[in-house]
Amino acid sequence: MESDMEGDIELGMIEEEVVYPEEFLPTYHSIKEGGNVIKAQEVEFNDKPDSLFFNDGVRRIDFVLAYEDEDKKEYEKRHVFQRRKNRRECFEDNLMKMGMELEATQSVLDEKLVFLKVHMPWDVLCTYAEVLHIKLPIQSNDMSARPSPWRFFSCITKHFYPDEKLISKESEFFTAPFEKNRQDLFCIKDKDHFFTPSMRSRMAYYILSRAPYEIRGNIKKFGITKLLDGGVYKAAYPIHDCRFNVKSQEPECPNERYLLYEEWAHPKSFYKMQPLDLIRHYYGEKIGIYFAWLGFYTRMLTWAAVVGIGCFIYGYYTRDTSTWSKEVCDPDIGGKIVMCPQCDTCQYWTLNSTCNTSKNLCIFDNFGTLVFAVFMSVWVTLFLEFWKRYQAELEYEWDTVEFLEQEEPPRPEYEAKCIHERKNPITGVKESVPYTACGRCVRVSIGMTTVIFWIMLILASVVAITVYRLAVFFTFSRELRYTNLTIAEPIKEYVTPQMATSVTASLISFVVIMILNTLYERVAIWITDFELPRTKTDYENSLTLKMFLFQFVNYYSSCFYIAFAKGKAVGYPGKPVYLLGKYRNEECDPGGCLIELTTQLAIIMGGKAIWNNIQEVLIPWLKNLIYRRCAHVTTEKVIPRWEQDYQLQPSSKLGLFYEYLEMVIQFGFVTLFVASFPLAPALALLNNIIEIRVDAWKLTTQFRRAVPEKAQHIGAWQPILQGITILAVVTNAMIIAFTSDMIPRLVYYWSFSVYPYGNNTENTMKGYINSSLSVFSTNDFQTVDDDYIHTPPNLTTCRYRDYRFPPGHPKQYEYNMFYWHVIAAKMAFIIVVEHIVYFTKFILAYIIPDVPYAVKEQIKREKYLTQVILHETNLKLVSKRLKATETETES
Predict the structure, then answer these.
(1) Which tens digit of pLDDT belongs to each residue from 124-163?
(2) Where are the transmembrane segments (predicted)?
(3) Which is deepest, 109, 362, 709, 757, by most CB within 10 Å?
(4) Which residues of 614-634 are buried (b: 16+ CB within 10 A; e: fewer)?
């Protein structure tokens, strides 16, 4: 049951926070105190399924509330239902006192269900447009637009844009924040269409979020959110303007949903650019800016995907010509090199048994990868800088340039907890706050502790998977030994113990990631609710940071382990390093850990994309299908527009948070580890092309219309993307230096191959495999269990991957000079590459302005016109006052 104290505040303390226009301040009262309740008008459905108006056909529906009639409920719970009814009647009474008009209609399909339609008259719209600082047209844009450089290709490019006959380009206006007392300054041609439906819905939701529903003494409860949580209302939503697949025949219906489906959400339009202006007009700026960012990111991925595919093709066609790969596969070289056991129960093996692995490794570990990693470091900079420019253009076109400069209203959940007073350091006026400074610190500390606990839990799961790797590697190695040879040989050719361990561990890692992700989502939301941020922007930023920190560790920890930890501290065959004193650290394949990192990335990226698409497409579709089956919806009944929308899935309370999170995690995979997987941008591009249409289809067909919201940019995701790009330079440089064989091969090439053989491309890397493997005496094994390890006759030495002195040397098994040369080269490579790339990023960020010059001119022009118009208006007012004063003086 809902707590009585939920949303309680002292009467009078909240009035400093909630902004109510004076002419619509309600007279608060309690149902229990005998206040007269003003009932909403009850009407019958007029059999117009696509009507967006009240039954009179004049007043537009700006919002819809759905509830169950308590008079038709069973008697056992009458006291609970009566309480809900009292709250609802008080809430509706106060809504009408604030100027809103209500009309109730019974459901066509369920006699217990009632739909309450909300309409905002012109006077109320003007008042709240001023309260919310909504910018509206004051004059047509008289600045000449610069011609597009692509206009000469318009005969080709027009096929990749929505049909202009269906979706015409919006007229451009200079705008200014609306002022009710200066309506004559704005371009008001038609009062019915001056405020767009998204503006009307936004203002309606603002009132619904702050209207009281119960007053008891000095305690006041308010807001539609609490009523929804308490079951007083079943749903609250703005309505779609028509059916998505059928064009409405109503004369006043704009059919924007139908146009969005045909030109944007339908799979046949996958190759077309998005109608961003119409998306913003229909869903609001917050959803519009998300699709603008996603579309821009997808277009930029095209260049990265082309270069990445080129790098992959280069590696694929050169894998058979690689000298070091040939040496691994050569029976006279790799076939005669006996490798030391890689675990305490493993057996000796020949190097050419990893022939297929070495060939596959050549695809991803070649000189093209180095070029591609540098290219991606520059690409991420260009992506962010060009996005800032594009975002600045959208900010101006969508009138959000000064959005954050305006005071954002506090969240109703914050207002409901305001029980303390403090002096505002800026205004010097006392204001209500929900906690003291000490209380704030306690809440933040608890939140941080919880986040750290969950991050440690993820790290514990990584350790558990590492132990699994060690155990499975031992099992695979042992089973392959004792398997019948006629079966084992084909298996050994295609499935090595390293590969089998890598694939199974990657699959388990993906399952663990998804389970922990589901659990932590609820924890992160609970923590953020407990911290009680003041505004919705603060709430979203706090939740974004918590979720991303968790997701960063959850998704990337296994990749970081493979890239930078696995095989780096294993010792040598005679003196291995043990984890927890029991498990011998696993080693990389003789070809290196790069191929395993590639496998991990491919499985997680592919699995995540498939799982997300199932969640976003299949689950909402099944829920709607089941609801229609259970409700026995038939085509014989005429169902009104508001009830058709009620049958759809409700919009998420967190809006587009999960969509942003999904794309930012993908951005991390594309940039942080791209040196090991050049196909990552291509996979991301394919996924995003599908993702845009899936999100569009989901919003347009399966979900109720979301409450339109303002947004200037992508919020806290912008600095997170910038942080990823900075980290990506370091991770890719370290992957090339420490995970791939690029640097050892280059050191060998310049130190040993060039001078003895000359610059002969056929022989430059000859002998590299032999030089990269150290020698170990089989007599130096500390313990030999004959049940597992069997030393073949006449085998006195084996090889292992390292740079150490051979047995018999005064410094046997210590690092040799070539090891230190390689280490020095790796460190020099990281330092040089990082400095070059960071310097390039700095230069590009400096020479590319964040705001285009044309946009700066238009912003200045708009501010000038606003000042001129306001100045002239003030002069007229002053002149009228002077004339009136002179007239009074003369009389």
Answers:
(1) 999 999 888 888 888 877 666 666 666 666 667 777 778 7
(2) 290-317, 367-387, 451-476, 499-520, 663-686, 720-740, 818-839
(3) 362
(4) eebbeebeeebeeeeeeeebe
Are 143 and 155 in contact, with CB atoms under 8 Å apart?
A: no
Predicted pLDDT of residue 466 = 73
Q: Phi and psi at residue 10, in whole multiples of 5°?
A: -80, 135
> Residues 251, 252, 258, 259: what is their CA dihedral angle, to the nearest 10 degrees?
100
Among candidate residues 247, 211, 258, the one with its CA nearest the CA of residue 92: 211
Q: Of 237, 165, 229, 158, whose CA–CA distance to 197 is shortest?
A: 237
Tell me how far apart the alpha carbons of residues 586 and 342 are, in angstroms, rounded to a whole number. Answer: 8
What residues does each domain of the chain span?
Answer: 9-134+178-239, 273-743
Vertex 585: Cα angle to 581 and 587 (nearest 5) = 165
Cα dihedral 497→499→504→506 (10° resolution)? 140
- CA atoms of 799 and 776, how far apart (whole Å): 6
Query: What's the rounded Cα separation, in Å, for the pair 455 and 470?
Result: 23
Per-residue pLDDT tens over the stretch 371-423: 898 898 889 989 999 999 999 889 888 888 766 545 566 766 666 666 666 65
State how far the Cα of 319 lies from the Cα of 312, in Å rounded to an integer: 11
How many whole angstroms separate alpha carbon 11 and alpha carbon 15? 8
CA 68, CA 114: separation in Å to the nearest integer? Answer: 6
Report the Cα 220 to chain-centroid distance in Å: 37
pLDDT for 622-648, tens place per residue?
888 887 777 655 556 788 999 989 989
What ranges make up the beta strands (E) of 746-866?
773-777, 797-801
Q: Would you give the DSSP letter of residue 150?
A: T
